[in-house]
Amino acid sequence: MAVAVPPAGTVPERFTVEQFFALVDEGVLQPDDSVELLEGVIVAMAPSNPPHASATTRVANALRGAAGKRALVREEKSLILGLYSAPEPDVALVPGTEETYDDAHPRTALLVVEVADSSLAQDRITKAAMYAAAGIPEYWIVNLRGGRTRKRGGTPSSVARSAARRSSWLPSPTFGSPSTSCCRAGRGERG
Q1: Does 172 or 66 have the greater pLDDT score?
Q2: CA 131/CA 96 separation, integer angstroms
Q3: What is the residue-wise DSSP string for 111-138?
Q4: Which pTM value belongs to this model?
């Protein structure tokens, strides 16, 4: 379905997901632009620094090991949440396989992880509310500045619980000692 881009000089009050992706189709945004759609607002994302990139990779690899073929781990890819939001979580554990998303982005996730450095306030407030409203059962924030991880959401899914049981799933100088790593949050503790 084609969606018309607003004429020059007019900007909608809130962009829908369809309008947002149409901006790429029309060349207004480039596919590699670091932006996401949050509650109808196009938001620029900060470039990924080495600690952010490393933490994202570690989380994704740990979840891949825990999930196996039972779910798919996606890094920094769109997740469609309703009419007005298409965030790009750092890591999302989604149901299905790679082929499931050949023609459409996922509309749900089993677990979403945001690695926060400069984005901590937005991850704690805007994204936490957005993921909760979308029914995402688990949301973890890896706080690079504080060396802790917060777990938000209900009872962990079996896949997330399995990842959390790996006592060394994120040991690194980035997170300090294993006692402050995000595996604590996976066990239900608040960091």
Answers
A1: 66
A2: 19
A3: EEEEEESTTHHHIIIIIHHHHHHTT-SE
A4: 0.74
Chain segment 120-173, per-residue pLDDT in tens:
889 999 999 999 999 999 999 998 887 766 666 644 344 444 444 432 333 332
Tell me the C-alpha distance between 46 and 161, whole Å.
30
* Calpha distance 71→67 (Å, rounded): 6
Where is 64: in which H helix or E strand? helix 50-67
Domains belonging to the chain, first-starting first, are 50-186 (3.90.1570.10)
Q: Which two tokens stand for residue 44?
A: 């620029």
C-alpha 24/C-alpha 42 separation (Å) is 12
Provide the β-strand partners of residue 111.
93
Q: What's the token pair of residue 50? A: 């080495």
Contact assessment for residue 190 and residue 171, using Cβ atoms and an 8 Å cutoff: no
pLDDT at 152: 66
